[in-house]
Every structure is written in C-alpha cells, then in structure tokens.
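Retro notes
What went well: the complex prediction finally ran end to end.
Inputs used:
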Amino acid sequence: MSRVRVCHLYPKELNIYADRGNIAVLKRRLEWRGHHIEVHECGLGESLPLDADFYYLGGGQDRDQLLVAADLATVKGDHLRSVVADGAVMLAVCGGYQLAGHGYTGVNGVRMPGIGILDADTVAGSTRLIGDVAIDIDIEGRQLTVVGFENHAGRTHVGSGSVPLGTVRYGHGNNDSDHTEGARTGRAIGTYLHGPLLPKNPDFADLLLEWALAHATGITCELAPLDDEIETSAHDAALARRGSRPS
Amino acid sequence: MALCGRSIVCLTAPRGNVARLPLAFAVACARAVGTLSRRLGKGGGTSAPGRVLLGVRPGAVGELAARLPDGTVMVSATNGKTTTSRLLGSCITAKGWSTVANSAGANLFFGVATALLDPGIISGTTTFGVFEVDEFALPSVVDQVAPRVLLLMNVFRDQLDRYGELESILDSWAQMISRLPTTTTLVLNADDPAIAALDDGRHPVVWFGLDDPSVASAQMAHAADSTRCRRCAHDLGYAWSTVGHMGEWACPQCGAHRPSRDVSATRVELLGVGAVRLEMRTPQGSISTQVALPGLHNAYNVVAATAAALALGVEPEIIGAALAQADAAFGRAERVEIDGKSLVLLLAKNPAGANVTIQTVQLDPAPLHLLVSLNDRTADGRDVSWIWDVDYEMLLPRIAHLTVTGDRAYELALRFVYAGFPRERIQIELGAEAALDSALDALEGDGVLYVLPTYTAMLELRSILVNRGALRAYWEHV
C-alpha cells in the first residue's frame, strides 16, 4: 500500500469542464486498490507544494485564465518546472494545457505567458473548435484510444521539444489541420480532451496513476485490474456514436 | 436597431423576391403553417410559423409588439425563465389584461415571433405580451421590441459548447442595456453579483432578493460561478449563500455590495416537495402567499415575478392571490399520476438547476426513488461535463433505487460510481420507455418517483406519459 500526493492547482479558477471529475477518478481508482491518496488544493498566491506526485491543471474562462497565467509566472512556474523535470506527473487540460506550453495569444491579441513545460504554443483562431473527439495514443508501447469533448478557440502547434499526445481519429485536435492532439514531455501531458477525460478512459487514467505510484515509491508496477464494465461501455458508446470501433 | 438583432433575422430568413406582405396577411400565412405542423404531427409549431412570418415580413416582430397598448415584459435567466413567466402571466391575467405569451418555452427569436401571431393582436383584443427569452437571443429580441419591463434573474454556467463563455452573455447584456431606452424598467436580482453589475445608472431599477438566512447556507455550492467582484476582480465575501453564487455578497476590497432590495422575501418556508410559503416586503405593502412549487429556486421565481408584476402596476392583493392559484410549468416540478403511482418531473439541465433540484427532493423524508436522464442533443448542450459539477454526493445516503437513462446513460452512471454509489445498485436502461417502467416497477407503497431529466429527455419522457394518457402535450399545457 502506497501513498500518492495529488496537487490540484487553482481549483477555484480552473474548473469549468468538470475538472473535479478527473480528481475523483484518481482518488477512487487508487483507493479501490488499497492505496492512500491525499489531494492538496493550491490556489492563487499560495506557494507550490514540492512533494506531490501528480500536479493537475484544469480549464477556465478567459478572465480566470489570465489570473492564473500571472500567478504561474510570478509564484509557481519555476517550482512546477523543476518538480516535473524530476519526474512528477502533470496533467493539464484545455486552458491548463495552453498555459503549460509557451503561452496563449487570445482572440483580442493579448498574450498570456505560459510556463514552457511543454514545447507547444497557442494562438486563438476566429472560431471555436467544439465537439466530440477521439485520439489514438501510443505511449511506452501501450496503444490506447481516448475519447472526450473539446471546446477551444486556441490553435496549438507542438514543437520538437515535445511529442503530440495522440493522433486525431475524429474531432479537431490541436489546430484542426495537422491531425495531432495534445502534447507530452516525459510524464507531463497537455490535452484539450475534457468531458471529463478520465472517467470514460480508465486505461489512460491507470497509466497516469502508475506513473504517479512510480514517482511516489521509486518502483514501477502494473495496477491490478478493476471491474470497468461501465467505464468501458461509456468509452465504447462514445466511439460507436461516431461509427468508430474500439481498438 | 443594433446589428446583432438584424443578423439573427437575416441569417435565417429566406431572401429573394418575396414581396412585403401586408401585416395581417403575413400573420394569417404564418398561422396556417402552425396549424399544418400540428396536424402533420410535427410538434406544436412553436417556432416554424415565426420563421415564415419573418420571411414574408422581416419587421413583423417590432410591428406586432407595437400593437400591444400595455406593452411587454421580457424575462431572461439561465434558470427559472419558464416558471417565472408563467407566474408573472398569472398575475397580469388576474389584473384583467389580455396577454399573449410564449408559454410553451420556445424562447428564441422565432419562438417570440410565433407567439406574436396571436390573432388578438391584429384584432386589438390582446393588450400585453409576456415573453421568456433565451439568454443568447435576448439582445436581438430586445433591440426590436424595447420591453416596458425587463426582468433579469440569474446567470449560471449552462451549455458552454453553445454559448462559449458566461462572460460573453454578460457583456452582450450590458451592451443591450446601454442601447435600451430609459423608459424600460429593469427588474434585477440583487443576490446575483453578475446581475447586479448590469445596473448602468440610466434606467429605473427594481431590485429583488431573498432575505431569510434560515434557508441559506454558510457554504458555497461547488457550482458557484461568479465569486469574483465584477468591478475589481477581488474574491467576494458571502455572509450566506442561497443558490450557487447568489446570496448576501460584498467585496472586501472595493466595497461593492448587494444592492438593497425593493421587493424582498423576508420569510421563506420550504413546505416539502410541494410548495413554498413566502412573506414579501414591497414598497406597496407586504404580500403573504403560498405557491404550489417546491424549493428555494422557486422562492426566487416567486419574488422575481412579484417584483416584475409590481413594476407593471399590478396591485399586491392581486399578485398574492394569483400566485396562490398558479401551478407548475410543463416538466418543472410537474406532478403526474400514472397507473396509481406518482412521479414528479424536475427538469435539471445545468449544475445550479440540478443542485437546487437535489436540495428540493431531499425535503421528502422517504427513501428516494430516482430516475435520472442525460441527453446531449443541441437543446441540452452537447457537452455533458456539467454533471460533474452537480452535488449528487448529497443524495447518495438517501437513495432507495436509482435508474439512469438517456443518450449518455453510461456516463451518468459513472458520475454516481465515482461519487461513491455502489455500481451494482445502478439500474442502467438505455431506452426512455424501459427506464420509466423499471423505475415505476421499483416504486413501493405510496412513494413518489423523482424524475430528473435534461431538456430533451424531459420532452421524451413527457411524450411517453402523454401517449399513456397521463398528461397533455406541452403546447396544450396552458
């Protein structure tokens, strides 16, 4: 039995796409396997706890995202870069993904600086990219299809310092043109998929949890299987509605 | 007339060589479309006739509304539009004005246009209009028809995939108000800081709110949206909160605070899942009334309707009596008897609305039988993320039987699983008919089945109940 520490960043500002659903999945799937989890919420102005195994950054409205960008630049950015470089897991969704990259130039031309953990840059387009989305992911020899919903004005391009998280099966992805979605450097992941992401993608959730456990214990192990019948049904139903087959 | 008003009309109205038909003839043509729609079984024809009307006579909405000698009232909000318009309509009818209303809930531009096809407008017998208007469509409607009273009740997150962001609604409303003639009276919710910020100092304002901390909580619900000061962006402080981010608020930094209420519920009693009793203080005297609608959100609807009715010159005694006679709008706390069993339809289409619904069903002391349905069609919002912002956790210890259904039944089931409800106790039924039967079968004794559907899921379940003879169709529900 191990103890995993999760740091939920800016839960008050970045919570618009059901980010608390992702946190609930991390918690339950560890607890069902007998592990302990501590979730620490870290808001504007508060210094970053350095001992977490998993850092979570969600999505917010423009107004709140601006406040967070300023706080990351002045209070937490350096520390977050260093804990992630040391192997902690980071999952950044939607607005959080944009800020985990180099930055976001909004519809009004205003530039929000990012923290550059991911080599990705985002510029707003004239339309929002909205709808169901599925991507194929290949990480550490595991092939997964991940389903979700996207809603973003930003067009993100991934540089050579990161790899795209996946390729788009249907939906828009990073920029609606190069068929990539998300970005990854080591255990740091950014993605536009919400809905939320983790409940109906249990294999992906477990991959992240295995990384977090490896960071907590120094030992790499595979998690015991769970009864995922409803999770799998939700996942497969999302694909089936778009005429896509589970892989 | 503002550009955005025109764009909605022009984008969808047919172009070409259509001559401008005389108003009365244009109305007759459009009405014929509605009759045909119902006869062909295509629904209530609550929007298509308006589309035809504007095709043959683009300025018809403004022209028809101008023929209402007592003017119009418009109601907008994320939650409570239909119920409040219904309550307000009862007060105004009781005053003796002959009203036209879009009471079937068709609240986009064409829905309002369709309601204006009322034959009494052309003949001169209808004198007043009560319109609920969708948050997004509101500026385009108001730009064509400046209402005598504009009632704005609340803004919560809802259907983000359609609207982009809450801020854009609030910005468009602020711009709309800046264009509005100062003859329009604003009726605003003092308890919602985002609504309070809409007062531009140019229009007469009637403020309403709840002032009974005994029904409030010291804690903010998870779905609270607007907890930053609109003026200086500092965190707002709350002495207490009622529904979502509404309550007794103040900004500790710049001093902005809840405006003092002209119409205030000084005492609120929640009488189970059946009714609320309110004592209201108003400039025209106090009003005591009991309304057959449950929950704190309905207390807001009652106070909002009262404030708007007073602004229109309806007397307090008439308001109190009319409210006591009012009943539920379709699908909103609507009680249905079927095969000797009772169910209550409680529309729950966004986090704030679903949370008050959850508080309301908990007023029933019996173990709870629930049927929850989640669709993701356009009218529901395609993004179902919002269910994770609903505090279903509060219900879990009270649930006797849970059935989930809808287009996204599995994801709804996962919401309960990750809330901590045992997965083997969740009955998943993909079809609405099967779900309804299974939920009713599980009901024992004189228990009540609480049905919490999204908008299209509510229409779907309602049409099953209509087919079984337990209800009337929504466009006949007046």
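What we learned: Chain A has one domain: 3-241.
What to try next: split runs per interface for comparison.
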